[in-house]
């Protein structure tokens, strides 16, 4: 009987841990901080993601800011 209880407790513990990791991954990706938190794990499982992340960051840095309504049409 003790072995059955130990196996049941261990199974519940693993299920809670996996559910917690799924919840954390969804929350991190929804908020947009997934690249900094999950990047080491993603690089282990998908090495090409590192190059893609560098390209994405470079693209975001090159973007020209949008004009505001107060900007003149033809800057001098």
Would you kindly provide a written description of the structure presented here, covering whatever features stand out?
Helices cover 74% and strands 0% of the residues. The chain is elongated and about 85 Å long. Helix 1 (2-31) crosses helix 2 (34-45). It contains 3 helices and no strands. It has 76 residues and is mostly helical. The N and C termini lie far apart (85 Å). It has helices spanning 2-31, 34-45, 49-62. It has a domain at 30-62. The chain crosses the membrane at residues 6-25. Keywords: Membrane, Transmembrane, Transmembrane helix.
Structural key phrases:
0% strand, mainly alpha, 3 helices, transmembrane, membrane, 76 residues
Classify the oligomer: single chain
Profile the largest sheet. Answer: none
Question: pLDDT below 50 for ≥5 consecutive residues: which ranges?
Answer: none
Order of helices and strands: HHH
Q: Give the overall average pLDDT.
A: 80
Strand content: under 5%
Structural class by helix and strand composition: mainly alpha
**What is the number of strand segments?**
0
- Supply the number of helical segments: 3
Note the overall shape: elongated
In angstroms, what separates the terminal alpha carbons? 85 Å
Percentage of residues assigned to helices: over 70%
Report Rg: 23 Å
